[in-house]
Design goal:
alpha+beta; Rossmann fold; 775 residues; eight-stranded mixed β-sheet; single chain; 14 helices; disordered N terminus
Length: 775
């Protein structure tokens, strides 16, 4: 089947292997799995699993002026609506769902099912406790105490156009039109706008906008990202200069009536990048002031992917952050918005990439909290608005993932923490209470699972949703000292269990250094037989911002479907992965961009095969997308005798033409000053192109024709190298697809079929799962 798919849809001709290596392995080994179980895979296709899935977490809707809340929760008994009072420790139905269904039927003439009543709840009215909701396009008010149901007309929401960036006092808005900014007085009945900037040109415009579609003749009003001062008298805005950034192109082959050319800006490693400016507009004086921000060549201001721009409470100071091109230096600065003068408050330096998280302002003060890994772990530091370090708030071999809430009145801050217990999975998040006075830490969620917490308005209570891949979700209500107040829900997975679902296994294996623990998840076929041998397949994403190893209960998972074909499917981390395990773990292999994680991948699979006799370590598959696709190709070429089958999706196989921020962020980029004082940037990252001749196994390259992140040039360059090396491989271009290939159902089918053919010797393809392909 996989051969027929490729002959029918393949965009360029390739030579398919005559025989699959797994056929050789299968000879004389009757205990080895030799046929894909498409029927079982079809049963556990993600869309079918969703039909058996109930609610997995409590999402609270707080009732105004209190810590009471309601929530909606689905079980095999239907949809429930619950009202919770934390003070009274009471959980009760918000209304009688069967009575409401009867009243709705009586009122509208339409049949309603009390078990499956799905309403859009708007509000709970004070006094009689009546609820207002919408269903099937009508709006109703229902009083649970009396059972009275009546219709009502909801008040129209305050008009706000999508293009308006409105000031805090709701008096002004700013927007973009053409290449200029405009200001509008919302209190003016005529709402006349006035132009406040001039001189815009193509590639040099207001707002952090990378689009080149910003043409002068585009006179539609558009939203522009600005940051208003608290007094609504000023706003700051970035101006980004893209004029020296080179163009890149994609061909829209499906455009009508003719194929069209898409042009966009795309800086590659070592090339000129965008230049950033920061300006402040004074609405009262009608003046634009440029803020002094320059320090390093090719520095950046607004591409931190996080909030690093904020105002003081009195609107007299503006704070911003800047970083060097090599990502090893970050400054936090303050500026006078009336003069543009600035000064440095914090100088953050590392020999390696500095990770930045959102700045947290302490309520009611100009103090702020800065996250840093300066001591090797992600911790919080309290600063005054003059840059004076007041204290280090958190300490120890833990990583603060994020700040959940701050209670200034009690002096408590609540944070999610990774790596809190060396005996537990380091990726699990736990909630801690941290005293701002003495920095004492208190664990509030002790269960050995992954936690997600939401606080009540008063911060006296929080809802804790927690689970593991092998533990169904539990939702509880706790007070802010961690004491249990109410058991809310235990997720109903009865339909999954009845269908034969089994939880995956969690494992921990030493890395190749013999010291570092690598945690992972193993998926088995639901008809697993320990007396048989199964090929092993690993899904990979090497980091550095994420390792994509599941930590919470997630039954809707394409890895589960793949396992049902007859594979052991594993996902696990590697040194050099994400920051959750500290700076050393994250910075490992910084100068070894291509190979840093491969040794751990090979080592863990070898150790798993040694530990579990049902794993066949001479039939190993690997797959991934984007950075995971790059790692997949690398694995097939660096360890060609170990990894036998690979599927690489959207892989940036030639880092020299990938987006500069990715390559330069995780690999050294050097500034070279020439005799004429001009500056060049050099980076040398090993690619997969130069080792194409190492390929021995079966490799499938997949790419989207409209991928503006990893350009299709990557797959053609890799293919050309393989052709020159006279290697057999498979290649597939997905028409009109962008970068998100793993979610594409057709791509999933190609991946499953490819592994079935080349690891199991099963060429029947996925007909039984999806039916015959169109002729």
């Amino acid at each position: 089947m996989i051969k027929r798919i490729f002959l029918t849809f393949l965009c360029i001709p390739v030579i398919l292997p005559i025989a699959s290596p797994c056929a050789v392995f299968a000879i004389g080994l009757p205990e080895v799995i030799k046929a894909a179980n498409w029927e079982l895979a079809a049963k556990w296709y993600p869309e079918k699993v969703e039909q058996r899935l109930m609610s997995l977490r409590v999402k609270p809707h707080w009732i105004s002026g209190s810590d009471r809340f309601w929530y909606k929760y689905k079980t095999s008994e239907g949809v429930h609506y619950w009202l919770v009072d934390p003070v009274k420790k009471i959980k009760r139905p918000l209304f009688d769902r069967f009575k409401l269904a009867s009243e709705l039927t009586r009122h509208t003439g339409r049949p309603y099912n009390g078990r499956g009543l799905d309403i859009q709840l708007l509000s709970i009215e004070k006094g009689d406790g009546s609820i207002r909701f919408g269903i099937d396009g009508e709006w109703f008010e229902f009083t649970p105490k009396t059972g009275n149901l009546k219709t009502f007309e909801p008040k129209p929401a305050l008009a706000r156009e999508w293009w308006q960036n409105i000031s805090p006092d709701k008096s002004l808005c700013v927007f973009k039109q053409g290449r200029s900014l405009f200001l509008m007085n919302l209190h003016d009945p005529n709402q006349k706008e006035r132009q406040i900037t001039t001189g815009g040109e193509k590639g040099f415009n207001w707002g952090a906008n990378y689009s080149t579609l910003d043409e002068k003749d585009n006179q539609e009003r558009r939203f522009v990202s600005v940051n208003w001062s608290p007094d609504s008298k000023k706003f700051c805005v970035y101006r980004v200069d893209l004029r020296e950034v080179k163009d890149l192109w994609l061909i829209d082959h499906l455009s009508e009536p003719r194929p069209a050319l898409r042009t966009f800006k795309y800086p590659m490693p070592g090339e000129n990048i965008q230049r950033w400016e920061l300006w402040v507009y004074n609405c009262e004086t009608d003046k634009m002031i440029r803020i002094e921000t320059d320090r390093w060549k090719s520095q950046s201001l607004g591409d931190f992917f996080t909030n690093t721009l904020w105002w003081s409470n009195d609107s007299k100071s503006l704070f911003f952050a800047r970083r060097s091109r090599d990502f090893c230096s970050v400054d936090v600065c303050s500026a006078n918005p009336d003069t543009g003068k600035s000064q440095i408050l914090i100088e953050e330096r590392l020999k390696g990439m500095i990770h930045v998280k959102p700045v947290i302002k302490l309520p009611g003060t100009d103090e702020f909290i800065w996250w840093s890994m300066r001591d090797g772990w992600g911790h919080l530091y309290l600063y005054g608005n003059t840059g004076n370090l007041k204290k280090q708030i958190t300490r120890g071999h833990i990583n603060v993932k994020r700040v959940v809430n701050i209670d200034k009145e009690t002096g408590m801050m609540y944070v999610m923490v990774n790596n809190h217990n060396e005996k537990q999975n380091p990726y699990y998040k736990h909630l801690y209470g941290v005293s701002l006075d003495d920095s004492s830490l208190r664990l509030l969620t002790p269960e050995d699972s992954d936690h997600d917490c939401v606080f009540s308005p008063s911060r006296k209570y929080f809802i804790d949703n927690h689970s593991r891949v092998d533990l169904s979700p539990r939702s509880v209500l706790r007070d802010n000292t961690g004491n249990l107040v109410l058991e809310l829900e235990q997720a109903d997975i009865s339909l999954l269990l009845e269908a034969g679902w089994k939880s995956p296994d969690i494992f921990c294996v030493k890395s190749s250094d013999g010291i570092t623990d690598l945690w992972g998840v193993m998926y088995k076929p639901f008809n697993f037989d320990p007396n048989k041998k199964y090929p092993i397949v690993t899904g990979v994403y090497p980091g550095r911002h994420s390792e994509m190893v599941p930590t919470e209960f997630s039954p809707v998972n394409s890895d589960i479907t793949l396992a049902q074909l007859g594979f052991i499917v594993v996902r696990f981390g590697n040194r050099g992965g994400c920051i959750d395990r500290g700076l050393w773990y994250r910075q490992y292999g910084r100068d070894d961009f291509r190979d840093y994680g491969l040794d751990d991948k090979k080592t863990v699979i070898e150790k798993l095969a040694s530990r579990y006799p049902y794993i066949c370590d001479n039939r190993v598959g690997i797959f991934g997308s984007s950075s995971g696709g790059f790692m997949t190709t690398s694995a097939m070429l660096v360890y060609p005798d170990f990894f036998k089958v690979g599927v690489a999706m959207a892989a940036p196989n030639d880092p020299s033409i990938y987006y500069n921020v990715w390559t330069e962020r995780y690999h050294d980029v050097k500034q070279i000053t020439l005799p004429d004082n001009t500056v060049q940037w050099e980076t040398n990252v090993e690619s997969n192109i130069g080792i194409a001749g190492n390929l021995k196994g079966n490799l499938l390259l997949i790419h989207g024709s409209q991928d503006g992140n990893v350009h299709p040039a990557h797959i053609f360059r890799m293919s050309q190298a393989l052709v020159k090396a006279n290697k057999h491989f498979n290649m597939f271009i997905v028409p009109d697809a962008t970068h998100n290939l793993p979610k594409n159902p057709y791509v999933q089918r190609l991946l499953w079929s490819y592994f079935a053919e080349h690891l199991l010797g099963d060429r029947r393809g996925d007909v039984k799962l999806f039916g015959e392909p169109p002729q």
